[in-house]
Structures are given as C-alpha cells and as structure tokens.
Design goal:
The chain is α/β, with parallel strands linked by helices. Helices cover 35% and strands 23% of the residues. It binds adenosine-5'-triphosphate (ATP) and magnesium ion. The site of magnesium ion (MG) has 3 residues, from helix 1.
Length: 260
C-alpha cells in the first residue's frame, strides 16, 4: 500500500507529490504515464531504493522505509524485478544467471555453497525449461537475443521464489513479436504463481490487453485508476497531454471529475 508518497530528489526535482495506491495480493496493475512522470521512481521507492520525502509504503505488512540491512534484503528477496535492460551478468552463462536468482534468498556465502547443491541446480534447469531456454543453459548470456535475455530474467525471477513482480518497461527494447511473447510468458508465470505484478508500459495496446487494472501517473499523482474495459483511448490520451491537467479518472467515475 502506497500512502501519501512524495519524492523530491536532492537537486530539488519534485517527482511524486501525493501518491496513494492500494494493490491487492494477486492483482495485475499496469502503470502508465508520460516520460519523466515518475513511474520508475515510484517502483524504486516501492523497492526501498529511494528515501521518501513524505508518506509510507507498506508491502506484505512491512513498512519498506523502516526496514534496513538484512530485513530489507529479505523483503527484496521476495520481489522480482524485470527491467528494460535485463540486468543480467552478460559474461556468465544463462544457467549461472538463473542460479544466482537465489542469492538474495539464501545469503551470499550460503548461496555460493547452495548454488552447487543438486536441488538448486535442478531447480534452475526447471526454471529455464519453463521459459523454453533449457537448451541454451550453457551459452554466454550476452550472446542471446533481447527476447531470450528477458526470458532468462523471468527464469531468474522464478528461481528467486517471488511474491511480487515489478516490471519496468520489460519489452521496450524488443521487437513487437518478441515483446508480445515476453508479455505472454511474464503474465502466464504471474498467473501460475498467483503473483502480484506492477508493470510499467508505454504500449497502450499491450497495457489494455494484459492489465486487470490500469493506473496512470501525472503531475506527481495518480490521476487514473480503471479496469481496462473502462479506459477508452481518449481517456488514456489525457495522461500524455500536457495541456489537460486536473482530470482524474477513477473506478466508479463515469465522467471525468476535476481534481481541486
Ligand atoms: N536520481 C535523480 N536525481 C534527480 N532527478 C531524477 C533522478 N532520477 C530521476 N530523476 C528525474 O525524476 C523525473 C522522473 O523520472 P523517472 O525515471 O521516474 O520517470 P519515468 O516516468 O520512469 O520516465 P520514463 O517513461 O522516461 O522511463 C524525471 O524528471 C527525471 O529526470
Ligand atoms: Mg522509467
């Protein structure tokens, strides 16, 4: 739950002003908004990677801002991140990248021992098999295509045993076909494991197709929160229109209401 969250960077850039967002367990949220409106900042705040200027973020009953050290790492171990740039170790094999998904869960030294354990190795192969890449396990990761690398990132997330997934433009650098395949895989995995997902997208067609709920950020606040069936192209376009400020579209609101 995100309550009254504000974030101003040290250089004075005010990005988030008063963000309120309640996400239920198992919900699939797609976060929309123009470049620079603060989507990545909000995800980083939810991951505890940014200090908040105001407000609070509670995940799984724990206030992210109050967690430090080991307890913050433990919380993060249950959060999977999928980024546009894949965030894999390019010069390691596909298999090693997936195996290292356990690092946060087991602690560094224990993980390094456990990576050798038969159970973890079998599990890593199982995760790779799930994303259709078992045959590429021994390849260097940076020799794979973008779509394949994003599948590796999804396999690593499966290895990590996550409950929540934050995906920041996961298909931005993929061609339309590879992008759709990755979205299919990501949301299949999310449904199979009943995960909660917050996914930032710029492609409105994909957003409408995959989201259970569309949330739009503008001017540092949530201005749209609708099921995809209620979000017409015109309504979605207001998120990207710099002229139209003050409009909010929330569930149960048929007509736009004007924020004060
Ligand atoms: N570390 C930082 N210090 C100062 N300003 C920052 C920092 N990180 C981001 N910003 C600024 O905060 C604003 C929001 O950035 P953010 O990356 O969250 O936007 P976004 O919605 O994810 O944009 P995009 O769609 O382009 O990815 C931008 O104006 C950006 O320049
Ligand atoms: Mg971003």
């Amino acid at each position: 739950m995100v309550s009254g969250v504000g974030k101003t960077y040290p250089d004075g850039t005010e990005v988030l002003r008063k963000v309120n967002l309640q996400i239920c367990s198992g919900e699939g949220v797609v976060l929309l908004g123009a470049n620079g409106c603060g989507k990545s900042t909000l995800l980083r705040c939810m991951l505890g990677l940014e200090t908040l200027t105001s407000g609070d973020i509670v995940l799984g009953g724990q206030s992210v801002q109050q967690l430090r050290g080991r307890s913050l790492r433990q919380l993060r171990a249950h959060i999977g991140s999928v980024f546009q740039q894949f965030n894999l170790v390019g010069n390691l094999s596909v298999f090693q990248n997936v195996l290292f998904g356990r690092l946060g869960n087991d602690g560094l030294l224990r993980s390094l021992n456990l990576t050798c354990s038969r159970i973890n190795r079998e599990r890593a192969m199982h995760c790779l098999d799930r994303v259709g890449l078992a045959h590429l396990a021994s390849k260097r990761t940076d020799s794979l295509s973008g779509g394949q690398q994003q599948r590796v990132a999804i396999a690593r997330m499966l290895m990590q045993d996550v409950k929540i997934v934050f995906a920041d433009e996961p298909v931005a650098s993929l061609d339309p076909k590879a992008g759709r395949e990755v979205m299919d895989l990501l949301f299949e995995v999310v449904h199979e494991h009943k995960l909660t997902v917050v996914c930032v997208l710029h492609q409105l067609e994909l957003a409408t197709e995959y989201a259970q709920r569309l949330v739009g950020l503008k001017g540092g606040e949530i201005v749209l929160d609708l099921p995809p069936g209620h979000a017409s192209p015109d309504i979605l376009a207001t998120l990207y229109d710099r002229e139209q400020d003050g409009m909010t579209y929330m569930t149960g609101t048929e007509e736009p209401c004007y924020a004060s």
